[in-house]
Amino acid sequence: MNQESIPTLMDFAAKSLLSNEPIAIQSLEVLPKHLYIPLFKSAFLGRHKKVLNAMVRVWPFYCLHIGTLIVQEPPYEILEAIVDGLQFLPVQNTSSGGPKLRILDLRQSQNYEITCYYRFQQKLCSHSCVNSQNSILKVEEVQHRCIFNERVTSESASSWKPIELLVNLSFNSSWRTKRFLLFIKRKIEQSFGSLHLCCRYLQINHISVHNSSVQILDPACVDRLELNWVHLRKVITLFPQFIRLNSLTLFNIPFQSCNGSNFETFLTWLGKLDMLQELSFSFFCLTNQLQKVLRVLQHLVHLNSLRFLFCELSHRDLTVLSQNDHVTHLKRLDLSNNLHWSDYDPFKGLLERVSGTLQHLEINNCKITDSELSAILPVLSHCSHLRVLSLAYNYLSMTALVNLLQSLTALSNLRRVVYPVPLHCYELGRFGGQLDLNKLAEAKAHLNLVLQMAQRNDIYWTIL
Ligand SMILES: [Zn+2]
Ligand SMILES: [Zn+2]
To answer: N or C: more exposed end of the chain, with fewer CB within 10 A?
Structure first.
């Protein structure tokens, strides 16, 4: 048991108080400010919805972050109880006393404390929105300008205290998710325009996405978008305003052709994502069309991660990629599950061009054989920034793997390698046959010995 998981006296006191919810709620009136945090944590972990709701109503700090608290299943009931505690009040009613909470953050993260109060000791939160016109920052700016100009605030700006609700959203076809979205929508309507829904990470699963769900979002806030099974036609009609993305993942996107107008419109949108750092395509057939994609990507100067999984990239695509000027900035490259390359010369050229920046390389299931690996190994061993290498499900012998490990141990930044089962461990020595577990255990032991001899215990090597 680590130090953090040992219950403190405060935890016992909070638990005891929560055993009688009405008394716990009553005691909030006299509860010292610093005791709100342990009580909130205990109420959250014990799913005391009424107490959580009451605590949000009188929360004595500017912000409240769920942060490291684990939302137990079912998650929505507890989140709704918390959101329901938000108080919307006119500006003139909140000059003294009253609810202090202005930023409610339902995102889970290891890096957030429950409140920023103890870091800043004032009305500040390091997670407040800076992009939306409805953010606290922008709304208060307008409100202050109006007061300064002695205009009637209600005519020129909202006269309600702005509040932000930070939440990661996942749209899917489950009725409970839909009910949660409806609840949020209703809460926004009840807020007289003072509640800003700030969604920075949006995930949409399947075609069930509909316009009204997307319309409750401010595109200026979303910086990470993941689309799964959303038709390209929908993508280009629902998301043209989402241009502040740092990360875009497209998974299983059905579309008719790379020569149609939908694809052209999609590329136009892609070219506008000036802030994009990570782009991932999966199950997105781009055979002989990568050039079109790369043409728009060359303007995206922040792009440093490219993933093309199951994209059926051809030898021609690989050649085009290896000759593209932009690749020299890449830190992450994933070309897994592309099986149609007739030779690895273009890939070798590509590696040479990214060797100065590449930190993460995945080439799983690409039919790489011993001779191909030996051709790329000299270049690979010059990727001095490489931290992660994954080449699982390729067709390599034990000799090739030993060579690989011996070459890579010189890379001082390397921390993780995922390598394939050596061919001799399969029945008849052919990839995909029945595994001989004894041979596999021997192979692992031998490879571990190679690593120990190279004194690289700081690298996590794993077989897949
Ligand atoms: Zn904060
Ligand atoms: Zn926002």
So the answer is: N
Looking at residues 112-117, what average pLDDT do you find?
A: 87
Distances (CA, A) of 14 to 18, 87, 383, 433: 6, 25, 53, 58
* Nearest CA among 24, 6, 4, 22 for reference residue 14: 24
| Residue 84 CA to ligand 1 centre (angstroms) | 19
pTM above 0.70, yes or no: yes
- How far, in Å, is the centroid of ligand 1 from the Cα of 111? 11
Query: What separation in Å is there between the alpha carbon of 89 and the centre of ligand 1?
Result: 20
Ligand 1 centroid–CA 127 distance in Å is 6
Report how far Cα 410 is from the mean position of its chain's Cα atoms: 32
Distance of CA 286 to the CA centre of its chain: 24
**What stretch of H or E contains 340?**
none
Tens digits of residue pLDDT in 32-48: 988 999 999 999 999 99
The domains of the chain are located at 227-358, 374-464
Closest listed residue to residue 108, CA positions, set 45, 65, 169, 73: 65
SS3 at position 192: coil
Superfamily of domain 227-358: Ribonuclease Inhibitor (3.80.10.10)
CA distance 171 to 180: 10
Ligand closest to CA 135: 2
End-to-end CA distance of the chain: 32
